[in-house]
Design goal:
With about 700 residues, this protein is of the alpha/beta class. It has 3 domains: about 220 residues, Rossmann fold; about 250 residues, Calcium-transporting ATPase, cytoplasmic domain N (3-Layer(aba) Sandwich); about 150 residues, no CATH class. The protein has 27 helices and 22 strands. The longest helix is centred in the C-terminal third of the chain and has 41 residues.
């Protein structure tokens, strides 16, 4: 079954002329998030002001955490409650936080200063404000969030238990409740809250939305510009770490960046998705000048997306580093077993993801794409010469494994091969000239998108070397790749191998559309990131594990059925025409018919049924035998034939099956079928008479094993 009961999503086929191609797939290119993982994201850890909250060092709360988040660390809320006043307000102009004299006790690790409280307030304010989430109020008074992407919704949900609850969003404002930080027992939206409505209003922060710079695949970040209650204009931004580090202030403390980088690596090693947050206070004059360009770009008809992207790049500069989030995204059920079966069937699986290398490696180990015994080859150089040297070195090592014997031994072995080897030596490539069929079971390749792929995909020589190295490795993972780079990798394999392999791309989001369209076959995952991938695909499924049955079962069945139908139809007609042509040699080209008129008339009528049923119901090697027996029994029942005649009819269908299985027996088998049918039409033996078999038929039966 290819039906997912949890999401109530069946498989859907959007095209019918590619079904047989699914049985011939050589390469699978898969996205990670939402394709191999569940895309059910929850914040698990965060790094703020050089301190990791959550994880092993967390102070667990006694009460159970909400199901919509995995973040469980009492330190964050305790620090905020200790240092925040009844109406907390933090801005970038140097406002300080008042301290509440309560029973707060500093943690043993020394965390809990006013600086930590300020950093936490800014961080969780960024989570609650920097997004495009829509708030929906349910009948019972609870609030639910509708987000464009699962990770964006996960961040908003994660801020809620810490006391920063998004309660309303309109076209021009965002309202955040900090009642939880102030120490109320229940958060806003709870009917059992002990605070009155007037007191609850004191803990509402309203932000005026001035501009939203949406996420795009080039910038790999999004930002929002708001006006706070103090009148300050603040830009909040979140995105991929490598893109965020490019736009930090020049005077950002180097140790702070290094500490955050080490935290990001630690998050990635356990398979968590990371995002970096930043902010900036924008002056009124700068914003007014930028706003004019933004309004012009927003109302432009031509090249609107590019103009908006340039506007975002102009304002997203000199950011102050806030912190980083680490979101958990668990692996789907059955993914390791599916990948194991696909690879055992000879299909190469390449994973193309936009996550960090450590995150991609961790997921690769979880789904058994990488094993502990594997040697991982990392291609991460940012220079053409260094990349060429690195690829040549690895190809040389593999060439030494592939080439048994030295150059002189190959020269003596074959002159033509020696000539090619000498030419290759002169070009400096002889050691890796014969790697097309080499496969190192203990090697895995990891390619970095922002550095290596930028240069490799723009160079034909580097592309050929990367492809040759990738084919030698058992597993290939490309990390930090953009949508265009995903399509470029598919194109590299699609046109770089002769004969052209059948490629399949599978993904669930809009960033996978270019990859799906570039591959021969596209499979979309009906997930939580919209229907862009599904609308661009040939087949839509709900889980990655269904891909195994799609390829290894339905793909194989369709390929077998189509092959048999084509071969049967071709040789069936060839047998009739060729036998007639050869018969003319013996009748002096007089035009004498070689068969009775009834044979010509009912040729296709009588012979369409076996292949029709085989084409519809063939699911294995033994089905043909069942079809033979079924039709033999059916015809013998209709004609009231004896067991001897039943044998003749069975023999006819067996000979028909020989057409599909072995074309060399075509002429003899079809001629025998025609003769048997002709004889049966003129003679129906009684049960007391001996089996009627002409002499030529008996001779043929003695040699059937040799022919078939």
């Amino acid at each position: 079954m290819q039906y997912d009961p949890e999401s109530d999503t069946p498989a859907s086929v959007r095209t019918s002329n590619l079904n047989s191609d699914f049985g011939q797939v050589d390469f699978i290119f898969s996205d990670k998030t939402g394709t191999l993982t569940q895309n059910i994201m929850k914040l698990q850890q965060c790094s703020v002001n050089g301190i990791i909250y959550g994880g092993e060092s967390a102070t667990r709360s006694a009460a159970p955490i909400p199901t919509y988040t995995a973040f469980d660390d009492e330190r964050a809320l305790s620090i905020l409650r200790h240092h925040c006043s009844a109406a907390p307000t933090v801005n970038g102009a140097g406002d300080s936080l008042s301290t509440k004299e309560d029973n707060f006790v500093l943690p043993e690790d020394g965390v809990g200063s006013k600086v930590d409280a300020q950093a936490l307030d800014i961080f969780f304010t960024c989570l609650a404000v920097c997004h495009t989430v829509v708030v929906e109020k349910q009948k019972d008074g609870s609030l639910t969030y509708q987000a464009e992407s699962p990770d964006e919704g996960a961040l908003v949900y994660a801020a809620k238990p810490v006391g920063y609850e998004l309660v309303d969003r309109t076209a021009g404002t965002i309202t955040v409740s900090t009642a939880g930080v102030a120490g109320s027992e229940k958060m806003s939206g709870d009917s059992s809250s002990k605070e009155t409505e007037d007191e609850a209003d004191n803990h509402l922060r309203t932000y005026e939305i001035l501009a939203v710079n949406a996420f795009d695949a080039t910038r790999k970040r999004m930002s929002i510009i708001v006006r706070e209650a103090t009148g300050d204009i603040v830009l909040y931004c979140k995105g991929a770490d490598n893109k965020m580090f490019e736009v930090l202030k020049e005077d950002t403390i180097k140790e702070k960046v290094e500490t955050l980088n080490s935290h990001l690596d630690a998050f990635a090693r356990v398979g968590l998705r990371t995002l970096v947050m930043g902010r900036r206070v924008v002056s009124e004059s700068e914003f007014e000048k930028w706003s004019d360009d933004y309004d012009t770009a927003r109302t432009s008809v031509l090249d609107r997306d590019n103009l908006l992207s340039n506007c975002a790049l102009a304002i997203e500069q000199d950011l102050e580093l806030i912190g980083a989030s680490a979101i958990e995204d668990k692996l789907q059920d059955g993914v390791p077993d599916a990948i194991k079966k696909l690879r055992a069937s000879g299909v190469s699986v390449w994973v193309l993801t936009g996550d960090k290398a450590e995150t991609a490696k961790n997921i690769g180990k979880s789904c058994k794409l990488l094993t502990p015994s594997m040697k991982i080859i990392e291609i991460d150089k940012d220079d053409d010469e260094e990349l060429d040297l690195l690829l040549n070195n690895w190809l040389t090592v593999l060439g030494n494994i592939a080439d048994k014997g030295n150059l002189l031994a190959r020269m003596w072995k074959k002159t033509k091969q020696a000539t090619r080897a000498v030419a290759a030596v002169l070009q400096g490539q002889w050691r890796h000239s014969d790697l097309n069929h080499v496969r190192a079971e203990s090697l895995a390749l990891v390619v970095h998108g922002p550095t290596a792929l930028v240069h490799i995909l723009n160079s034909k020589s580097l592309t050929k070397k990367l492809l040759k190295l990738g084919r030698c490795c058992k597993s290939v993972i490309a990390c930090r790749v953009s949508p265009s780079q995903k399509a470029g990798i598919v194109r590299m394999v699609k046109y770089g191998i002769t004969p052209m392999p059948v490629t399949l791309a599978i993904g669930d989001g809009a960033n996978d559309v270019s990859m799906i369209q570039e591959a021969h076959l596209g499979v979309g995952i009906s997930g939580k990131e919209g229907l862009q991938a599904v609308n661009s695909s040939d087949v839509a499924i709900a889980q990655f594990r269904f891909l195994t049955r799609l390829l290894l079962v339905h793909g194989r069945w369709n390929y077998r059925r189509l092959s048999k139908v084509v071969l049967y139809s071709f040789y069936k007609n060839i047998a009739l025409t060729v036998s007639t042509m050869f018969f003319q040699i013996f009748c002096g080209w007089s035009g004498q018919a070689s068969y009775e008129e009834i044979v010509y008339t009912g040729f296709n009528f009588f012979l369409f049924a076996p292949i029709l049923f085989i084409g519809v119901f063939d699911q294995g090697e033994l089905l043909c035998c069942f079809v033979v027996l079924f039709f033999s029994f059916l015809f013998s029942s209709l004609l009231c034939l004896t067991p001897d005649t039943f044998f003749l009819i069975s023999l006819s269908f067996v000979c028909t099956h020989c057409l599909v299985s072995n074309p060399l027996a075509t002429f003899v088998c079809v001629d025998l079928c025609f003769d048997l049918c002709f004889d049966l039409l003129h003679f129906v033996p009684s049960k007391h008479e001996q089996t009627y078999l002409p002499k030529q038929h008996m001779i043929f039966l003695q040699h059937i094993p040799l022919v078939v």
